[in-house]
Design a protein that fits this description.
mainly beta, 11 strands, eleven-stranded antiparallel sheet, 10% helix
Length: 138
Amino acid sequence: MIKLIFSALTVSALLSAVAVADAGSKDAKVTLVYEHELPNVPGKSMKGILVEYGPGGSSSAHTHPNSAFIYATVLEGAIRSQVNEAPAKVYKAGESFSEMPGDRHGVSENASKTKPAKLLAVFVVDSSQKELTFPIKK
């Protein structure tokens, strides 16, 4: 069932041409590609976000809503990610990671200086939540 959902989100990500938001990032294109209220969990929605990094691209350090659980899958290239105080790790196409409610995403960047990278982040979040990324002020 989960594979089916992520396959559908991946196809949606590749075919969708919906609104683009910058979210305070350097070279990252962030696109909402899927949004649906969960029928068996009142007040919660699933939102699919496609993040595209150019060569050497990155996003600023950020957090997400306290209600958000995030499952991220690298679709293309390699992404360097650091969540909370854990060491940064490189995830290659086909690999995934999770972020728990309240986590701090200190590093999110393309691991390559020469090739693009894509990441699909699937949020389970309060349906009323519109903003999904909050930059961390240094």
